[in-house]
Write a structure and sequence with these properties.
The complex is a heterodimer. Chain A is built from 33 helices and nine strands. Chain A is elongated, with a radius of gyration of 46 Å. Chain A has four domains: 3-10 and 35-422, Sodium/glucose cotransporter; 543-621, no CATH class; 635-735, Orthogonal Bundle (Helix Hairpins); 744-892, Heat Shock Protein 90 (2-Layer Sandwich), CATH 3.30.565. Chain B has one domain (3-120): Rossmann fold (3-Layer(aba) Sandwich). Chain B is globular. By secondary structure, chain B is an alpha/beta fold. A five-stranded parallel sheet of chain B has the order 2-1-3-4-5, sandwiched between helices. Chain B contains five helices and five strands. The chains are: A mainly alpha, B alpha/beta. The A-B interface holds A 676, 679-680, 683-688, 690-692, 694-695, 698-699, 706, 709-710, 713-714, 716-717, 847-848, 852-854 and B 10-14, 16-18, 20-21, 24, 55, 57-58, 84-85, 87, 105-110.
Chain lengths: 895, 121
């Protein structure tokens, strides 16, 4: 493939990436952009060219140990739920914009610490970036079959690619001055590339394993015939086991602390709950990436032996077999891995360089008053220049030094250097005594050890080819030899360096933390970090500060960076939050903290602190005082939590009360209605009696016939009155359960016999037939007198609706499921459909009865229902019976 | 011309007393057991006054008075409620429907007769 064509393809691919990033920035609110899957894929920025090409190289030369780099993150994934979520929460609370800011803030916005972290990251990542560029350069050569490696810079395509990447990072990494704002464009491009690189790697894996060979077993079978095979597939003894252990630890740390991981995993995180998706999906991604590595490596070994660089088997294998299209895909996959890594790393580093190095050390005074636009332009420009500076530096590093270095070794060195941040980062998250002095000394010692045991011998060997320093060490003292300090000679160089540096680093960190008198500011932030969950609700109030500051002065600083409009808005939000009606003259601790936070995104936490400190007169507070205040605020939180719980309970109670009240109101209403009806029912016979009495009284000359007519009616009315009163009382007794039923074992046929016997005369009077259809003796528990009352009521009711002569009322019963079902049926008018649901209500009286009043109290059926209910049974009308009325009673057999 | 009264009530014992009392006062008395019967009678007879219960089967007192008030031929007919519903809201409703008087049960026969006499004089 000619280099021009390849360059064209590369530029075209980059153009697509620009397009995606550009489109995303516009649509930054869309669902896809903010999906948890995009977040997880962006975490896969972890898989750089080192993964893409380097793993195969390691697998080919030293066997399965390439896996360790992925086991760390996989082990780390479940721990994310605790650690990563905590880190994300803190970063959001404090508007943190970089790893350096995070650590410096934890130790009281320590300016030197922030700068030190930045330098550590630069030392670690610069060679790492140059390695990525090296991979681009080498794969470019393989694709274009160029032999000569020594070319001038202006001829080197890698240089231009590096520049394009710098432009990309500078453009999308500095859209806003506030670096704590999200960079969706970059995130989505990285996610897209993560998808591509995995896809292409899997495609070439399948191609090699199943097309060039006959599957995994075929490769294993063929490879096992080659010498040295067994060394490649097992861990050799305890010593190799230690190496494994330390490499896993290294990668475990790296997944948190590599600047690009911190950027993607913490700073670009949208929601805490996305972490839940990440803990299963990210390990899955890594697993998929590693499925074919070992087979590709063996396949390459079988085909090429040691003739070509084993790191690029994925390119050589398809090329040798004439499939240059597949090779191109592989190349683009590798390029994707490089672009993601380089772009995210440089722009993450550029924020650290600007906010933790350049601005706090010397650039602060250059920010002008009243020129917020200019100031924010300055900040953006510092970052843009940093990006170019980092990439160009990385390029020159590659151009001059790294020609002979492997991807794997430089990658590991990077990890070891970055790991020096681990004690102050991880321990500081959970231990509030960790101090800045401990962090700084630990970091410097760790860095020194790494330098002596890893970087120095590595560089000397690479530059001079002389291994004598490595073997003999300084002053020819054997136990100071760089790769086997104090006789520990079984670890590989990187693991060895890691072991010593991290041990000494941690020891120093803990020793000096315990032995320094804490600074109150430091302790304040330590508390906020360690107890981040508690302080989520406290926010600005967790900051302890005493002193004097004019709001005007603070506003002045804010305006410098935010501009007038945004400052006004930010302060308005602050005042609303704390319910401050009028702008105060003096600023309090909350406002100082808030202002520092607002500035942090733009210029870093330590610069923000320095700027604010310039205009305030702060009083020293003792550590004891800080702790006391914090204790009080913690109590306040606990109290407010308790209050919240209380108020929740109260709300629940109020709801219950409301329900009860509604019930009571309903009952009250029912009672009113009942009384109303009762009154009405009582008045009617009373009226009859009163009117009759009057007539008799004022008409002494009345005829005998009339007299007896009136007296009879009055007698009827008084009977009605007493029946009514009796029924009302009876009903109330039953409904309230005041009366105990007399349950006895009775025979239902005998009971029905009694009913029929007593009603026969009344039926005969109307010439209506009473029929008993079943006489089978069934014995069960019931109150016989009450059941007789029920049957009597029902039959009386039927008598009211049946025509004389043709009327038939029949009683039947049958056994149901653990119950007996009794029916009373007549051939009368039947129930009106509109009445069916109400006939058992008290005082319901059908409009259609054909009897002349006064008859019934309107309570008979209601009382019957109460009686049946008291037996645990049910009474209802059979709606399907159309030839009259049928009432069914179900009584369960009670044991 | 003798005075005519239509008594509408579903309680026969009450009707009996009212009928006796008004007949004594030389009224011509018509009796209906519910609203429907009353309206039927009103098709052929135009009484001076209708004594109307409210809670009755089929057509109740409210429906009956509405029908009466809507009938132009019955404009001269006085309507008096005689009912057990004695709450203020009931009285108000009855009067708003156009009743000339609202009397409640239990009542004094003498008083009812006096009220009716006054009304139609």
């Amino acid at each position: 493939m000619s280099s021009l064509v390849l360059i064209f393809i590369i530029v075209f691919y980059l153009a697509i990436l620009f397009g995606i990033a550009f489109y995303t920035e516009r649509k930054s609110k869309s669902k896809l952009v903010n999906s948890p899957y995009v977040y997880v894929l962006s975490l896969a920025v972890y898989c750089s060219a080192w993964t893409y090409y380097g793993s195969v190289g390691v697998a080919a030369n030293t066997g399965v140990s390439f896996l360790t780099i992925y086991l760390g993150p996989i082990i780390a994934a479940p721990i994310w739920i605790i650690v990563l979520r905590k880190v994300i929460r803190i970063a959001k609370q404090h508007k943190i914009s970089s790893l350096a800011d995070f650590i410096s803030l934890r130790y009281g916005k320590n300016r030197f610490l922030g700068a030190l972290v930045t330098v550590v990251c630069l030392i670690a990542i610069l060679p790492y970036i140059s390695l990525q560029l090296k991979a681009v350069s080498e794969t470019f050569e393989i694709m274009t079959s160029r032999e000569d490696a020594s070319i001038a810079i202006y001829e080197d395509a890698t240089f231009y690619i590096a520049l394009l990447l710098a432009i990309f990072a500078a453009f999308f990494g500095t859209q806003t001055t506030d670096a704590s704002k999200k960079h969706r464009g970059i995130v989505v491009t990285v996610a897209f590339e993560s998808l591509l690189k995995l896809l292409f790697f899997l495609i070439v894996g399948v191609y090699i394993t199943y097309y060039l060979f006959d599957g995994m077993q075929d490769i294993v079978a063929k490879a096992s015939l080659v010498d040295n095979f067994s060394n490649l597939v097992q861990i050799n003894g305890l010593e190799q086991g230690f190496n494994w252990f330390f490499t896993i630890m290294l990668s475990f740390i790296a997944i948190f602390l590599l600047p690009r991981q911190f950027q993607m995993g913490v700073l670009e995180s949208n929601r805490l709950k996305d972490v839940k998706t990440a803990i299963w999906l990210f390990p899955l991604y890594l697993l998929l990436f590693n499925v074919f590595v070992i087979f590709i490596a063996w396949a390459g070994k079988l085909q090429f032996g040691n003739a070509v660089n084993s790191e690029y088997y994925t390119l050589f294998l398809p090329l040798k077999n004439g499939n240059s299209f597949l090779a191109l895909l592989v190349f683009l996959g590798g390029l994707s891995a490089v672009i993601s890594m380089v772009v995210v790393s440089t722009f993450a580093l550029s924020i650290m360089v600007s906010n933790n190095l350049i601005i706090p050390y010397g650039y602060l005074k250059n920010f002008k008053r009243n020129e917020s636009l200019k100031n924010s332009k300055y900040i953006k420009n510092i970052r843009r220049v940093s990006i170019f500076f980092i990439i160009v530096l990385a390029y020159f590093f590659y151009y001059n030094f790294s020609v002979e270095l492997s991807l794997y070794s430089i990658g590991l060195i990077s990890f070891v250097i970055v790991a020096q941040l681990a004690p102050s980062f991880f321990v500081g998250l959970f231990w509030n005594r960790g101090s800045s002095k401990g962090a700084i000394i630990g970091m410097l010692v760790g860095l020194g050890v790494t330098f002596y045991t890893l970087i120095l011998p590595f560089t000397i060997e690479a530059l001079t080819g002389d291994a004598s320093f490595t073997q003999q060490g300084i002053f020819n003292v054997q136990f100071l030899s760089p790769h086997s300090l104090f006789g520990i000679d079984f670890l590989s160089p990187a693991e060895h360096a890691f072991f010593w540096s991290i041990s000494l680093n941690t020891i120093c960190y803990i020793y000096f933390s315990l032995n320094t008198k804490g600074n109150y500011r430091e302790r304040n932030y330590a508390e906020m970090f360690v107890e981040s969950k508690n302080y989520t609700s406290l926010q600005e109030e967790a900051y302890v500060w005493k002193g004097e500051a004019y709001v005007e002065d603070i506003k002045d600083i804010l305006v410098r960076f935010l501009g007038r409009e945004k400052t006004k808005k930010a302060l308005a939000a602050f005042y609303t939050k704390y319910d401050i009606k009028e702008e105060p003259k003096f600023a309090d601790a909350k406002m100082i903290h808030f202002s520092e936070q607002v500035l942090t995104g733009s210029i870093g936490s330590s610069s923000a602190r320095i700027l604010i400190q310039n205009v305030v007169k702060e009083e020293e507070i003792t550590l004891v005082e800080v702790l006391k205040i914090l204790e009080e605020s913690k109590d306040a939180i606990a109290e407010s939590k308790a209050m919240k719980n209380k108020s929740k309970e109260l709300k629940k109670l109020a709801k219950q009360l409301k329900l009860v009240n509604e019930e009571l109101l309903e009952k009250d209403k029912q009672k009113d209605e009942f009384l109303d009806t009762v009154a009405h029912e009582l008045k009617t016979p009373l009226t009859g009696i009163r009117a009759g009495t009057e007539i008799l009284l004022y008409n002494p000359d009345m005829e005998e016939d009339d007299k007896s007519r009136f007296l009879t009616s009055m007698l009827q009315d008084s009977e009605r009155l007493s029946r009514l009163i009796h029924n009302i009382l009876d009903f109330e007794k039953l409904a309230k359960g005041k009366e105990k039923l007399d349950f006895q074992a009775n025979l239902i046929n005998k009971t029905i016999e009694k009913v029929i016997g007593s009603l026969q005369p009344a039926a005969a009077k109307k010439n209506i037939e009473l029929r008993v259809k079943n006489t089978h003796p069934i014995k069960f528990q019931y109150d016989e007198d009450r059941m007789i009352q029920v049957f009597t009521n029902l039959i009386y009711n039927s008598l009211k609706f049946c025509e004389p002569k043709s009327g038939v009322i029949s009683i039947d019963y049958k056994l149901g499921n653990q119950s007996i079902e009794i029916s009373v049926r007549d051939n009368g008018k039947g129930f009106e459909e509109t009445d069916v649901d109400f006939v058992f209500d008290k005082f319901f009286q059908s409009k259609n009865q054909n009897v002349i009043k006064p008859q019934g109290s309107g309570l008979g059926l209601a009382i019957s229902k109460q009686i049946v209910l008291s037996h645990g049974g049910d009474i209802f009308i059979n709606k399907n019976y159309k030839d009259g009325a049928e009432v069914i009673i179900k009584i369960p057999f009670n044991e | 011309m003798s005075k005519k009264i239509l008594i509408v009530d579903d309680e026969p014992n009450i009707v009996m007393s009212l009928e006796y009392a008004f007949k004594k006062q030389n009224y011509e008395v018509f009796i209906a057991r519910d609203g429907q019967e009353a309206l039927n009678i009103l098709e052929s007879e135009i009484p001076n006054v209708v004594l109307l219960d409210i809670m009755m089967p089929k057509v109740d007192g409210y429906q009956t008075i509405t029908q009466i008030k809507n009938n132009p031929q019955l404009t001269d007919v006085k309507v008096v409620f005689l009912t057990a519903k004695s709450k203020a809201a009931d009285v108000e409703k009855g009067l708003s429907l156009g009743a000339d008087k609202y009397l409640t049960k239990p009542f004094s026969i003498r008083k009812v007769v006096n009220e009716i006499n006054q009304l139609i004089e």
